[in-house]
Amino acid sequence: MSKDPINLCGKICPFPIFLIIEQVEQMKDGDSLTFLVDDPLVLKSVPEELDSYPNVTYAVQDADNGWIISVQRSHN
Prior knowledge:
Layout: E1 6-7, H1 15-26, E2 32-37, H2 40-50, E3 56-63, E4 66-73
Parallel strand pairs: 1-2
Antiparallel strand pairs: 2-4, 3-4
């Protein structure tokens, strides 16, 4: 999968959530993705959704005018 950040700034919920989950479901073991978001609702909804994937970890970091969500799919 691409290492370039997927820019979802300017997109409001639930659209970013759908896009992030769609990408996560296509990830293979060892893949990682980074998303740029600026809708604060994403910070609540995305972790709730990603917690349902046992082999996916994520981290959220502050960024200029938004947040960076890093997602990784681990080996089973």
